[in-house]
C-alpha cells in the first residue's frame, strides 16, 4: 500500500520553466495593454454595469483584497467616462423671493463661470452708473427743486392761515405744546389770562368758538404738511427708482439677450433688477456711522449686503473632459453631500449661499463615484442618505443634525439638484452577502455584482499576461526588470499562493510586494536585473521576518517541551497536522492525538470538546467518525464502546474537521491494539462511509512535519498521508522535493480510511466476508475481535447482576 499510494516527486509541485517565455528579460515587453488578468466574469459584469442606463443598476465589486478591484474600477470607469458627455455646470444664486432657499441654475459645461463673470461685470457697471447718475448735479438739482416746491406750498398755506387768523384777531404761534391759535386784544397784543377773564361772557364764547375753528384749520394744515412730506418722499423715491431703472435697464437687457433660452436665468435677472432698483442706496458711497458699521458687521439686514448679487459657481466643468470619475476614500456626510460653511461674527454664526461647498455627489454628478463599502458603513448617516438620494434622484444639501433635533432648522436650504450618477461600491463577498440579506434597499439599488476571483487558470497565455503585468509594474514603479528565470520563480510563487498547481493567484498585491523586495536585493547587489536568486532571497527574508512563532514552536518540539514522536511505534497515538496563522504568515506543525478505548456506553468522549476547546465543525467531524464506527462494527448489535480522544498539549481553541481521519486512525489503533508508525503524520477529513475528504493548508502541513523530521534527522521512513484530492494542491518547496527525490521523505495520497491505516500500521485493513466478519490478522479484524470481546464481557456482567 505504501508503494501504491506514494506520490511521485513530479506531482508534488509544478515549476515554470524559464524557456517558456520568448524573451530574456521583462524589459523586452512593450505591447502590454493595461487590463485585468484572469477575471473574465468580472470584466463582463463591469462592462454591463457601467453601460446599462438604469437608475437602480449600480455596481458592487466583490472580492478579497489584493485582487486589483479598486485599480480596475478606476481605470475602467475612466475609460468609459471618456466616451460620455461632459455634464452641466451648476451655480447657486440668491433667491430674492425666499432668501433662505438659494436657487440652483444649470448651464452647459463651462458656461457657469461665464454666467458668474457676466453677473459680476453687469453689477460693476450698474454700481458705477448708479453712483454717476444719482450723485450727479442734475438729479441733485431736481431733488432740491422738488423739496423747494414743497416748502413754498407749505409756506403759502401757513401764510394764508395766519392772515385768516389775524382777520379774526388771532395769532398763530408754535409752542412746545404744538401750534396754537392765540386771541388778540384791541391793541393786537395776545390776551393774558386776566384780560381774557375780564371780557364779557358772550365775547369769550365767541372767541372760544373761533379758536376751535382755527385749531381745526391748523390741524388740517399740519396734516397736509405731513401728507405732502410723504408724497414728496414717494415722488423722490419714484424719481430715484425711475432714474435707476433708466440707468441700469440697458445693462440688464443686454446681458439677458445672451440667456434667452434659459427662462430661470431671465427670471433671476428680472428679480435682480427690481432688487437693485429698490436698494440702490447701497451702491452709493456714504460715510457710515458707528451704528451702521456694527449693523453691517452683524448682518442684521442681509438684504443690504451686496453679496447677494454674487454667483456661487458650485460645479464647474469648464476643464472637464468626458464624465467625471471620483474615488472617494473618506465618505463622510460633508464629503459626499457637500456642506454650508459658517463664520462667527461678534458671537453669531452667519452664512449665506456663497458659503456652500459641493460634495462628491455634486462633483461626480453625470459620472461615476467609487466608494469602499466598509468605509462607507462606518458613516451610517452617509449610507442612509446615499440610499435616499439614489432612490429620489435628487441631491439635497441639508443639515445632518435636522433629524436628530439638535438644531431646529438649517440656516439655508438650497434648491435640490437632479442626480444622474453611477455608484461603484467595493467590498468583500461577506460584506456583499450581509448587505444583500440585511438591507432591503441594497438589493434594489445595487443590482450588478462584479465578482472577482482569487485565482485563474495556469495556462501559457496567462503566464505571458503575468509577465506583461510584471513588466508594466516594474516600469510604473521604476523597478529593475526581471530575467525570465526570476519571472518563472514569481509565477511559481503565485501558484503557491492559491495552493493549486493548475492555478495562478489574482491577488496581485502579494506578487508586487515580492517584486519590490526583490528589487531591493538586486539594487543592493548592484545587479541590473532582478535574478532568480534575488526573488528566492526576498521570499526567504519575507518568511524570516514573520516566522518567530514557528521557530519557537520547533524549538519546543526539539527540546521535548512539546511531545512529538518521529520514530518507533505507539498504540492509540498518531501525529496530526494543523496550521497556525499569525496574520501575515501561516505555517503547519504536528500535534499528538491520542485515543483510549474501553468497555462502556458513553460512546466517544472528546476531551477537548468537553473542555469547551473545540468548534462546531470539529464536533461535527467527531460525530461523523462515530457514525462510521457504528456502521462498520455494530450492524447487528449495539456498540458497547467508550473512548476518549484528545489533542495532547493543546490549550487553544481547535476547529475544523481536517483531523477527523487522524482521530479515527487513533481509535482503530486503540481498538485493535495495533501500533502506529510515529514517523508518519496524517491529515484529512472523513465521511460516514470511510472516504477521505480534502482539507486546506496541505503544503504548510507537509512542510511543518518535514521540518520537524529534518531537525531530528531524516531516516527515509518518514512522511505524510494526505487525501488524494489534495494532490492538485501540492506546491511544495524545493527542500521537500529534494528530500523526496533522494528517498529521505515521502508523501502518500489515500482515498479511504483503510488505505491510510495500512500505511500507518503496515498491516492489511481487511475486507469483511458475507457475514460481516474481518480476518483476525487485519486491523479491522483485530478491532472487531476486541469489540466482540467487549460485548461478551458486558453480557457476562449483566448476567451476574441478575
Gross morphology is: elongated
In terms of per-residue confidence, which ranges show pLDDT below 50 for 5 or more consecutive residues?
A: 297-303, 404-410
Mean pLDDT: 86
The CATH architecture of the largest domain: 2-Layer Sandwich
Q: How far apart lie the N and C ends? A: 49 Å
In total, the number of domains comes to 4
The neighbouring-strand order within the major sheet is 22-23-21-20-25-28-29
CATH first level of the largest domain: which class? Alpha Beta
Strand content: 15-25%
CATH topology-level fold name of the largest domain? Ribosomal Protein S5, domain 2
Helix content: 40-55%
Briefly note the structural class of the backbone: alpha/beta
Radius of gyration: 48 Å
Provide a count of the helices: 27
Number of strands: 29
**How is the main sheet built?**
7 strands, mixed
Would you kindly provide a brief summary of this structure?
With 802 residues, the chain is an alpha/beta fold. Helices cover 47% and strands 16% of the residues. It folds into 4 domains: 2-38 and 453-546, Orthogonal Bundle (Helicase, Ruva Protein, domain 3); 39-87 and 320-452, P-loop containing nucleotide triphosphate hydrolases (Rossmann fold); 132-283, no CATH class; 552-801, 2-Layer Sandwich (Ribosomal Protein S5, domain 2), CATH 3.30.230.
Fold and architecture overview:
- With 802 residues, the protein is of the alpha/beta class.
- It has four domains: 131 residues, Helicase, Ruva Protein, domain 3; 182 residues, Rossmann fold (3-Layer(aba) Sandwich), CATH 3.40.50.300; 152 residues, no CATH class; 250 residues, Ribosomal Protein S5, domain 2, CATH 3.30.230.10.
- Helices cover 47% and strands 16% of the residues.
- The chain is built from 27 helices and 29 strands.
- Strands 22-23-21-20-25-28-29 form a seven-stranded mixed beta sheet, with helices on both faces. A five-stranded parallel beta sheet has the order 7-12-15-1-16. Strands 3-2-6 form a three-stranded antiparallel beta sheet, with helices on one face.
- A hairpin with a 2-residue loop joins strand 4 and strand 5.
- The radius of gyration is 48 Å and the shape is elongated.
- The two termini are 49 Å apart.
- About 2% of the residues have low confidence.
